[in-house]
């Protein structure tokens, strides 16, 4: 039983190992922007891009995690250095358009259903107001004259 | 010199020192505001002249004030040490202040009078003649 548990623990460790592997410099470059040129760091050749890469290399050599490297990059260059929104207000930049699109789609569906219902069952015409007794008598007399 | 617009002030962290400061703290001084970065080669070229200027004007109520832009602090400190630059600098890590100033390239230098107004702007490296032309009259003005 103990041997089985030990084997299971080893299997878990083996599965977890790839996730914990250190990222490569090339992988990390995909996650940052060149702050001076506004292009992805991986394709930028400007002097500031070289300094950004140097910081990434230093951090990797120091064994820092991706989160720590991102924190160092933001501390040096500001949040615009991140290729993807990181959190807080930036997350709303992703969420708001999606929510707005969903709400618009829901609104269209509801409106289409109402229009379809309105087309199938036209609203009943409102009943005219009752005739005044004098008008009714005159109408009867006119109709009787036409019948003659 | 024509009309002097007020220089934008923004509280920024001090480079290599605790706390923060803004141009408002330098009211009463003539300020040579130099926007630089350690990754900018032309900034390197003008550092010795800026340091000499600091030594020349500090006793006359003037100072050079650096604005280090989008830079790693340790890189920026090494850069200043390598050029024996002793004038103070502030950190504009995300270029927010640079945007307010209307900076278009590096380096860029603003000469600010004692009342916090921009008297001259120089895009790209300064030279002695330009500094002399703009600094001398301002240093004679009273606050």
Number of helices of chain A: 6
Average of per-residue pLDDT values of chain B: 95
The helix/strand class of chain B is: alpha/beta
Uncertain regions of chain A: pLDDT < 50 for 5+ in a row? 15-19
Helical coverage of chain A, percent range: 55-70%
Largest interface, C-beta within 8 A: A-B, 14 and 14 residues
Commentary on this structure:
The complex is a heterodimer of chains A (148) and B (143). Mean pLDDT of chain A is 80; it is low at 15-19. With 148 residues, chain A is mainly α. Helices cover 66% and strands 0% of the residues of chain A. In chain A, 15% of the residues are buried. The radius of gyration of chain A is 37 Å and the shape is rod-shaped. Chain A has helices spanning 2-20, 25-29, 47-61, 66-77, 89-120, 133-147. In chain A, helix 3 (47-61) runs antiparallel to helix 4 (66-77). By secondary structure, chain B is α/β, with parallel strands linked by helices. Chain B is 32% helix and 24% strand. The longest helix of chain B is centred in the middle third of the chain and has 17 residues, at 41-57. The two termini of chain B are 17 Å apart. The model of chain B has no long low-confidence stretch (mean pLDDT 95).
Please describe the structure with a list of short key phrases separated by commas or semicolons.
heterodimer, A: 148 residues, mainly alpha, rod-shaped, B: 143 residues, alpha/beta, five-stranded mixed sheet, two-stranded antiparallel sheet, 7 strands, 32% helix
Topology, pairings included?
The complex is a heterodimer of chains A (148) and B (143).
Chain A: H1 2-20, H2 25-29, H3 47-61, H4 66-77, H5 89-120, H6 133-147
Chain B: E1 12-13, E2 20-21, E3 30-36, H1 41-57, E4 62-69, H2 73-82, E5 89-92, H3 96-101, E6 108-112, E7 118-123, H4 128-140
Parallel strand pairs in B: 3-4, 4-5
Antiparallel strand pairs in B: 1-2, 3-6, 6-7
């Amino acid at each position: 039983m103990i041997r089985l548990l030990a084997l299971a623990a080893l299997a878990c460790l083996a599965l977890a190992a790839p996730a914990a592997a250190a990222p490569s410099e090339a992988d990390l470059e995909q996650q940052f922007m060149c702050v001076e040129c506004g292009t992805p760091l991986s394709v930028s050749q400007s002097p500031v891009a070289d300094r950004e890469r140097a910081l990434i290399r230093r951090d990797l050599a120091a064994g820092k995690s991706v989160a720590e490297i991102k924190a160092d990059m933001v501390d040096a260059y500001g949040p615009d250095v991140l290729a993807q929104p990181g959190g807080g207000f930036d997350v709303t930049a992703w969420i708001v358009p999606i929510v707005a699109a969903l709400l618009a789609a829901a609104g269209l569906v509801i409106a289409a259903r109402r229009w379809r219902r309105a087309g199938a069952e036209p609203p009943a015409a409102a009943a005219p107001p009752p005739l005044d007794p004098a008008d009714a008598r005159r109408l009867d007399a006119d109709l009787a004259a036409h019948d003659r | 010199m024509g009309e002097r617009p007020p220089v934008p002030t923004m509280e920024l962290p001090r480079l290599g020192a605790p706390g923060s400061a803004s141009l408002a703290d330098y009211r009463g001084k003539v300020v040579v505001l130099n926007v630089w970065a350690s990754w900018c080669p032309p900034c390197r070229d003008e550092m010795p002249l800026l340091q000499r200027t600091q030594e020349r004007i500090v006793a006359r109520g003037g100072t050079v004030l650096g604005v280090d832009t989008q830079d790693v602090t340790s890189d920026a400190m090494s850069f200043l040490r390598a050029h024996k630059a002793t004038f103070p600098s502030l950190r504009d890590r995300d270029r927010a202040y640079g945007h307010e100033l209307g900076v278009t390239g590096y380096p860029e230098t603003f000469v600010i009078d004692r009342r916090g107004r921009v008297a001259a702007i120089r895009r790209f490296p300064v030279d002695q003649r330009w500094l002399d032309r703009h600094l001398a009259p301002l240093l004679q003005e009273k606050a």
